[in-house]
Design goal:
Strand order of the largest sheet: 3-4-2-1-5-6
CATH class of the largest domain: Alpha Beta
Low-confidence stretches: 161-167, 482-492, 514-521
Distance between the termini: 43 Å
CATH architecture of the largest domain: 3-Layer(aba) Sandwich
Shape: globular
Number of helices: 28
Mean pLDDT: 84
Length: 768
């Protein structure tokens, strides 16, 4: 146990820092209140108020740490020539006293690197690293690690007692920062929400977090290596380090499903960053509601890169000349829109740059102008004094119902949804677009009956990526939205906008836009928001078409790609990291790093799952565990008539063993509802966390599909019928598949403490 003197020392400092934090909050509140009642006399005052108010609110947001500990560590540097060494407390935000003397440094500041990276071999100038445990503003524990100086000597206090415990740690020479604090964090019961790891970031994780912004950083990491936490902490670090750039360009974090996003949504706010966009790939595709599921065969086919060419061909078939001439009434006369005219116009339009909807306007103008010339030659006298007669006639022709109908047949105005719906609902169109690209069986698999309206269509996740691709081809349907010109409104008269910095200038324009009544339009669904940095978790499960969705949102080429090829579980998963990078086509050579240490998953579980990993991905090396749970996995084989009772009993015993922790029952996706009903019938409060009316992942007992468990963690896991999970995607329904084994590997490696298996059918060979 740490000395009471050390705890009292840190408590005294904590009280001082908390007082300084309250003073900083009061200063921000005063700034906010003064801006709210400021006397506004002109546009310059409005700009100033906007800037001051925004700064104050943002500062208050940063200083709101809730019940999180203000700091969690301290670093003492070796004494200098004067016999003094610098001391810094490391926390989740920087705190200064009234005289602006720093009390706590932000964990992202360069000076804090030594807290995470110092080892016995490379002390980075430290003499001591202290981990401080704080709960409810009370210091509950202190753990000190001492480092040798240049002479190899330790400067230990006479009564020093090393507080780090080896309980639960595996001997293996791994250099762990703050092993006692790490074990305490890992041993805490799960809450159903992911927490930050700033107090226990390890050296290999910190190096990844602080990697440069530019380029693509690929992070491969097995179960429990903290790759999700690393990606989120990296996003927070980059925002802190490159705030001026990334607050303007934006940061996007992409997860595999909405359940996962709910799981991680509190991490970035706890790190002081609330301006990050969290989304799934489908969530990036606006105005598309995913409410259906494709078969695995169709999902794999829709995610194939060939579909990009199929969509391009499908659009080309919609750009076609008329087969017959069409009569267009102009006043009392009739002009003939000849089929030959439309062939020439379509041929020229196809060679023009731009998207489909942009080129439609060119087709309409060309045909209408040609008809206007014919009309003028036939019906307008030479001595006519009409001004711009051809242009006016062309506009008149373009407004006639007959011309509009003909133009819609020649070059229809389309949305991405319409193009995909028409393609999938027309066997002839599918055959034409898929010629020499798709087999007859694949064409038949893609076909689905047409819906009565676009609103009635049941879209799937794979459809969303195809719609995004189609939108690039067809382009926006609406004309560019009107942009107000502040200098014409009188609001900013006499204000020199160029004299303001970028943020102030933007504030002035926003104020002018607020005061000026103008027509406003939202972004067209084919206009994409781009981001200065994109972090992608569970990237191994993205299809080629989903990767293209991601690439379109990439503004600068800066990405953090995180995943584990051993956990690739979707039908359309990338075959390798090389294949994934081939689709993204990064602008500079990507950097790959591997997380090799599993902090979360105990040795007993990793050893039990090792054979499944070897069978599923023989070229991957499993991560090294750092801790033991003290209990071996339980395997319970029962007769079919005993299965339901055995499942309820085993689940209840796991709940009791890890209380107040969380338990997950993981099953094949088709059995989720059945198992929820079985557990409830047995008196257990089981929930499907996808149910909006449930507690979600915060419930004590959840039932998950194996294919939806990526990235999640629980105190205990019960895997139901692993053979059924391992058979996923098998055509005969009996043999195991590589994807099924990878899915099983995901299910087996979700627990932080206990693993149990219950089955009434034969186990996969890897578990026997």
């Amino acid at each position: 146990m740490a000395h009471e003197r050390e705890i009292a020392e840190e408590q005294e400092f904590l009280d001082l820092a908390l007082g300084a934090l309250d003073h900083m909050r009061q200063g921000a509140r005063s700034l906010r209140d003064s801006a709210a009642v400021a006397n506004m006399r002109g546009a310059g005052d409005l700009v100033e108020r906007d800037v001051v108010m925004g700064t104050a609110l943002h500062r208050l947001d940063q200083l709101a740490i809730g019940d999180q500990s203000l700091f969690f560590g301290r670093i003492d540097y070796q004494a200098n020539g004067n016999g003094q060494g610098d001391t810094y407390h490391v926390g989740r935000l920087a705190v200064s006293d009234e005289a602006l003397n720093p009390l706590v440094i932000d964990w992202r500041a360069p000076v804090a690197e030594a807290f995470y990276r110092a080892t016995g071999v490379e002390s980075l100038g430290l003499s001591r690293r202290r981990h401080v445990a704080i709960r409810a503003n009370e210091v509950s524990g202190v753990e000190d690690e001492y480092f040798a100086d240049a002479n190899g000597e330790l400067d230990l206090p006479d009564d020093a007692v090393r507080s780090a415990t080896e309980e639960g740690l595996i001997e293996g020479g791994l250099a762990l920062g703050g092993p006692g604090a790490l074990l305490a964090a890992l041993g805490r019961a799960r809450t159903g929400r992911m927490g930050d790891i700033i107090a226990t970031i390890q050296g290999e994780q910190d190096q990844i977090i602080r990697s440069p912004l530019a380029g693509v950083l690929l992070v491969q990491g097995g179960p429990g290596t903290g790759k999700t936490a690393v990606a989120l902490h990296r996003a927070a670090y980059l925002l802190f380090t490159h705030r001026a750039t990334l607050e303007r360009q934006g940061v996007l974090v992409v997860g595999p499903n909405p359940l996962f996003l709910n799981y991680i949504e509190n991490v970035l706010p706890s790190l002081g960053e609330s301006g990050v966009t969290l989304s799934t790939i489908a969530g990036l595709v606006t105005n598309v509601v995913v409410n259906a599921v494709d078969s695995e065969e169709v999902d794999q086919l829709k995610g194939d890169l060939r579909m990009a060419k199929v969509l391009a061909r499908a659009l080309r078939t919609r750009e076609r000349p008329l087969r017959h001439d069409v009569e267009i009434p102009v006043g009392r006369a009739i002009v003939l829109l000849r089929a030959s005219y439309t062939r020439e116009a379509v041929h020229r339009a196809r060679r023009r740059p731009g998207n489909h909807n942009q080129r439609r306007s060119a087709v309409g103008r060309e045909l209408a102008t040609r008809l206007a010339h014919e009309y003028r030659e036939r019906f307008v006298h030479e001595d006519s004094e009409e001004v711009n007669a051809v242009g006016e006639l062309a506009e008149l022709i373009r407004t006639t119902p007959q011309f509009k109908e003909a133009l819609q047949r020649i070059w229809p105005r389309l949305s991405g949804q319409e193009l995909l719906h028409d393609l999938l609902g027309a066997p002839a169109l599918l055959k034409a677009a898929g010629k020499d690209l798709l087999s007859d069986e694949e064409i038949a698999a893609l076909y689905r009956a047409r819906f009565t309206s676009l609103e009635a269509i049941a879209w799937t996740k794979a459809d969303a990526a195809l719609i995004d691709e189609a939108r690039v081809l067809v382009g926006p349907r609406r004309r560019p939205r009107p942009v107000p010109k502040p200098e014409e409104s009188g609001v900013l008269t006499g204000v020199d906008l160029d004299a303001y910095a970028g943020n102030h200038r933007a504030a002035a324009l926003r104020e002018a836009q607020r005061l000026l009544v103008v027509q406003s339009q939202e972004l067209d669904e084919a206009e994409f928001v781009t981001y200065g940095h994109i972090a992608v978790d569970e990237a191994q499960d993205l299809s080629s078409m989903e990767l293209r969705v991601l690439k379109r949102r990439d503004l600068t080429g800066s990405m953090t790609i995180v995943g584990d090829m051993a956990q690739a579980t979707t039908a359309s998963s990338a075959s390798s990291w090389e294949a994934l990078l081939g689709v993204l086509a990064p602008r500079r050579s990507p950097q790959r790093v591997d997380l090799t240490v599993s902090y979360r998953t105990p040795e007993e579980v990793l050893n039990f799952a090792a054979a499944t990993l070897v069978a599923a991905a023989p070229d991957l090396v499993p991560p090294r565990p750092v801790r033991r749970a003290g209990t071996q996995p339980i395997v319970k084989l029962v007769r079919p008539d005993e299965f339901l009772t055995a499942l309820v009993e085993l689940t209840r015993s796991e709940i009791d063993a890890v209380a107040p922790g969380r338990v997950a029952v993981i099953v094949a996706g088709v059995r989720v509802d059945e198992i929820v009903a079985t557990l409830r019938a047995g008196g257990l409060e089981a929930v499907d966390p996808r149910d909006q009316d449930s507690k979600g992942l915060s419930a004590d007992l959840v039932v998950l599909s194996a294919e939806g468990a990526n990235g999640l963690e629980f105190d205990a896991v019960v895997v139901v019928e692993p053979g059924q999970i391992a058979n996923r995607g098998a055509r005969d329904g009996a043999s195991t598949t590589a994807r099924g084994l990878r899915t099983l590997y995901v299910a087996l490696t979700r627990p932080t403490r206990r693993l149990a298996i219950v089955a009434c059918h034969e186990l996969p060979l890897t578990l026997r």
